[in-house]
Amino acid sequence: MKALIFNPDLSFGVVPDPVPSPSQVLVQVSAVSLNFGEIAYRSPDPRPGHVPGWDAAGVVVQAAADGSGPAVGARVVTFGWSGAWAELRAVDTTELALVPDEVDLALTGALPVAGVTALQAVRRLGPLQGRRVLVTGASGGVGRYAVQLAALEGAHVIASVGSPSRAEGLRELGAAEIVLGPADLTGRVYGVLDNVGGRQLAEAFYRLEDDGVIQAIGKASKEPTTIDFEESRSRSQRGRIENFNVTTPFGDDLARLVGLLSRGELDAQVGWRGPWEQALSAAEALLSRRVQGKAVLTLS
């Protein structure tokens, strides 16, 4: 089958078809999405023939042998830590969700890693009704989902972006305020969903209210974080930073996101969409911050 692989740069190759385990379905892939992390932090020494990719949507062409999961013909969105960027994907039945006929299947391909990460991080902040929540890197894939999901929980969402142009559409998604970095923030916040790391994570920490919490999700800045705890004693309260790691299986959370999408309560925020033959262009646009939200590739 045809697949996108790193060899060492992103290019097409021919690899063996996947062989599903008894608890896996075989999916004919119709759309995949690119995530900043799987491109920016890819291995410098990729394994020959290894198919990368986390997110894919498509149609089941072989049901799981153990009887779990959907039947042949079902439209599904899927997750796994590899194997998405190919014509066929074998995926565990606990790592997928059904997609209704009225929902654009390609849009659901943008949901798995970014959407579930945002959903789980918002959940870990606890009750948010009426609380101030800062989202750093709000213009990215995880950030745009986090703004929407925190707003749905009743939070007063403050979206932090790198430039005014990156703020486009964030108020419509639920942001009550927009700032150019945590240093521009007025007042304190209860929660922070940090996708940037580095200096922005430190600045956000100094602005926590008493017993506030940061979910340290990503490191888009590629900078180390240095916190001056002597300074923090005078600038912050008893806040804390939690190292966020997304947990599997994704199935239930994916189903919740698909439900929100189908009801019009969530926007997939696909900022780039095109055929997978343009994968290199999409990856370059994502890494250079020219994509607002997610990049989705469709297979013919």
From TrEMBL:
Matching Pfam families: ADH_N, ADH_zinc_N
Start and end residues of each Enoyl reductase (ER) domain: 7-297
SUPFAM superfamilies linked to this entry: GroES-like, NAD(P)-binding Rossmann-fold domains
GO molecular function: oxidoreductase activity
UniProt cross-references to InterPro entries, sorted A to Z: ADH-like_C, ADH-like_N, ER, GroES-like_sf, NAD(P)-bd_dom_sf, Zn-ADH-like_protein
Top-level taxon: Bacteria
Entry protein name: NADPH:quinone reductase-like Zn-dependent oxidoreductase
Species annotation: Nonomuraea dietziae
Lineage of producing organism: Bacteria, Bacillati, Actinomycetota, Actinomycetes, Streptosporangiales
